[in-house]
Amino acid sequence: MKLLLVEDDLIIVSGLEYTLQQEGYDVIVFHTVEKASSFIQHHVKTIDVCLFDLNLPDGSGYDLCASVKQKCDIPVLFLTAIDDEGNVVKGLDMGADDYITKPFRVKELVSRLRTVLRRYERQSMRTEMYPFGPIEIYPLEGKVYKQQQEIHVTALEFRLLMIFAKHIGQVLSRDQLLHMIWDSAGEFVHDNTLTVCIKRLREKIEDDPQKPTFIVTVRGLGYRVGS
């Protein structure tokens, strides 16, 4: 986990760098806006989280926050001696994720870093999606939607739908499907169960299950996965 720390108080830097390294962070330190800006310009996508002092010798942490948010969506926290509602609002409006007033307890800072990172992790999980025709599949949530309406599927139907979504445009034989379902679940699936499962999936996702366009039977071969 890489953390970009920009702070001009060397005593604070020394204590923070040591503590954060003990917590498993790879800490990259700068003391000025100029040097930090150059790093952000070329390497910000290697960073997981930023910790910026608000008042720096040659500028403001606001400027650094704006530069980071223009390039990528990673968490930014401010360190500052200014406990003013206007400054707090300004920082949050710019996209900052938290605002920590000096003096602070290092353990509290570490805890708030973890909270922000967990929030970003949950957001990332929610956005992982597989499109399949009119269907959106969210594997980490185990949910399926059609035109923004949730479709309730069984565990087996969900596994089969994920297989289809990963093989758009391909023809998959029944043996291939049975093998892939078996591998992913670790349990045997009967051929008749596959037939029923495909029938039920068509009823749930196709506009006309009798004339499917997304799970299409290819006689003698298996099923072609539409898009």
From TrEMBL:
The Response regulatory domain sits at 2-117
**Would I find Transcription among this entry's keywords?**
yes
What biological processes does GO assign it? regulation of DNA-templated transcription
Q: Where is the signal peptide?
A: none
Q: Which UniProt keywords apply?
A: DNA-binding, Phosphoprotein, Transcription, Transcription regulation, Two-component regulatory system
Q: Which is a Gene Ontology cellular component entry for this protein? A: cytosol
Record-annotated DNA-binding residue ranges: 127-227
Alphabetized GO MF terms: phosphorelay response regulator activity; transcription cis-regulatory region binding
Residues forming the OmpR/PhoB-type domain are 127-227
Modified residues annotated as 4-aspartylphosphate in this record: 53
**CDD domains hit by this protein:** trans_reg_C
Where are its TM segments located? none
Q: Which Pfam families match?
A: Response_reg (PF00072), Trans_reg_C (PF00486)
Fetch the InterPro entries from UniProt.
CheY-like_superfamily (IPR011006), OmpR/PhoB-type_DNA-bd (IPR001867), Sig_transdc_resp-reg_receiver (IPR001789), WalR-like (IPR039420), WH-like_DNA-bd_sf (IPR036388)
Q: What is this protein called?
A: Response regulator transcription factor
Which species? Shouchella lehensis
Phylogenetic classification of the source organism: Bacteria, Bacillati, Bacillota, Bacilli, Bacillales
